[in-house]
Design a protein that fits this description.
155 residues, alpha+beta, Glutaredoxin, globular
Length: 155
């Protein structure tokens, strides 16, 4: 009986620790190179890139869908990594930060100027085909000149 208990405990420990030991995490491992909010603050005010804040929770189904489809799309990831400072924030672990940006649900994407001023937000899931034009609309400062629907009509 003791042997059976030790084998079971061994299996539980082995499979429970294995993901930690191999470096696996709940963060996306391909695609966008997310940083934490604390790391983003160390950047200071990067005069050339806007911030993309991604608020999520571990239990959020649509957050996982974003991470497993939209965010690993090669074109999306390349565009975000080149043009934005991407910040991934767990709303439950950072409730004051979520309150500061008025996050009432997840997923929630928030766009900020290089100085940290609010530009726009997108609550909920968004497909890669719809996300890339939104990224370009914000990054090119077109939001200062025209509405989003007008931007989408441009060739």
């Amino acid at each position: 009986m003791k042997r059976y208990v030790y084998i079971c405990l061994g299996l539980i420990i082995a499979f429970g620790i294995l993901p930690i030991g191999t470096g696996a995490s709940t963060a996306p491992n391909d695609g966008i190179n997310w940083i934490t909010f604390d790391e983003a603050q160390k950047f200071g005010q990067d005069a050339s890139r806007k911030y993309l804040l991604y608020f999520y929770t571990d239990w959020c189904t649509y957050c996982r869908k974003l991470e497993q489809s939209t965010f690993i799309d090669k074109e999306i990831a390349a565009y975000v990594n080149q043009n934005y400072i991407p910040v991934r924030i767990n709303s439950e672990q950072n409730p004051k930060l979520a309150a500061r940006y008025r996050i009432n649900g997840v997923p929630n994407l928030r766009f900020l100027t290089p100085k940290g001023e609010d530009i726009a937000h997108w609550p909920g899931y968004i497909e890669a085909a719809r996300f890339l034009p939104l990224l370009k609309y914000i990054q090119t400062d077109s939001y200062l000149k025209m509405g989003y629907s007008e931007f989408l009509k441009q060739p």
